[in-house]
Amino acid sequence: MQTITVALGERSYPIHIENGLLDRAGALLAEQVGPCAAAIVTDDNVAPLYLRRVEESLQAAGFRTASVVLPHGEPTKCLDSLSRLYTFLCEAHITRRDVIVALGGGVIGDLTGLAAATYLRGVRFVQIPTTLLAQVDSSVGGKVAVDLPQGKNLVGAFWQPTLVLCDPETLRTLTGAYWRDGLGEVVKYGCISDAPLFALLERTAPGGREALMGVMDEILRHCIEAKAEVVRQDERDTGLRMTLNFGHTIAHAVETCQHYTGLRHGEAVAVGMSVITRMTEQRGETAPGTAGRLDGLLDALGLPRQLPGIPETALRQAMGLDKKSLGDCLRVIVLDEIGRCRIQETNTAFFEGMSGV
Ligand code: NAD
Ligand code: GLY
Hints:
Blueprint: E1 2-6, E2 13-17, H1 25-32, E3 37-43, H2 46-60, E4 64-70, H3 79-91, E5 99-104, H4 106-118, E6 124-129, H5 132-138, E7 143-148, E8 151-158, E9 163-166, H6 176-193, H7 195-204, H8 208-214, H9 216-233, H10 248-257, H11 265-282, H12 290-300, H13 312-321, E10 330-337, E11 340-346
Parallel strand pairs: 2-9, 3-4, 3-5, 5-6, 6-9
Antiparallel strand pairs: 1-2, 7-8, 10-11
Helix pairs in contact: 1-2, 3-4, 5-6, 6-7, 6-9, 6-11, 10-11, 10-13, 11-12
């Protein structure tokens, strides 16, 4: 088993990675928290695959369990579901001494985390992420949230988990679309801070999903270490954590213009990373050859890298409306080279000519 610690003083927590870890969830949780009740939240895709194993493992370790299964998909990340979870937690007699477990992808993790942050003014919370995106990104770092009709993640908190358990074997049942979604974020870590991870992906990607699964524990360790270090330095997202948004300015604009019905998030991030890197390399702001390596890897992973046919003016307007832009000012993440990036303060004019690269 590999363990990475997210070092946040008294709120530090371990992230364990191992094939088959679901069956040891109870024993590992018992090391962190005393005997108590565990409320498990999952969705209707994940429940038939993994809920029973987690329940049995927790019960064998002495936990009283109660479970709720929500519909899968982004619409579940809403205030109505949060309200439904509060009812479930009350009916299951969950107290401040107990623990809430999120078993699923980023939707379940974000929603359950917000319930844990707010129910009884805060209850301990464990993440058992089952998508690639959730294992490398959303389960690490304590951002929890629900969406409003006005936009994504508009109500949330920072609420760090007590424990995160990553079982790479669970990724075998992911559909191709969600597999690729997560890969977009994996490539991002290689680009912004981890050249050895990028090289590992370059070596492995030609072998396809099976080859990547063969080194998945290593890939997860690289990504989680990279994110844990960023979170350690900037938990509240006021500086360095913004580097995790590499490729996301363009990605969010594309997703907005396509009303979230076109490219998937990870695919849009792939396009965003490629387009901005081609632009900055052409301007002499990124080391020569960087965009070629990035595009080669995206091709090998089956990720897109060309902007869909959306007018550039519409994309730039969407960037200006992005909730992460500061008035006229936009902070974009630019690669110096593979494995090194910087934050650049600019505005939407930076993206002039993006459709032509
Ligand atoms: P998701 O939770 O909707 O999961 C994707 C799909 O895969 C769902 O249909 C789910 O039922 C299914 N699934 C999950 N695990 C499975 C498995 N092992 N086998 C088969 N099917 C499985 O989506 P996601 O991509 O995991 O997460 C997206 C969410 O994460 C978004 O809401 C996004 O805002 C959020 N997010 C949060 C952070 C953060 O820091 N908190 C970071 C990135 C993304
Ligand atoms: N996914 C971005 C963050 O955790 O800050």
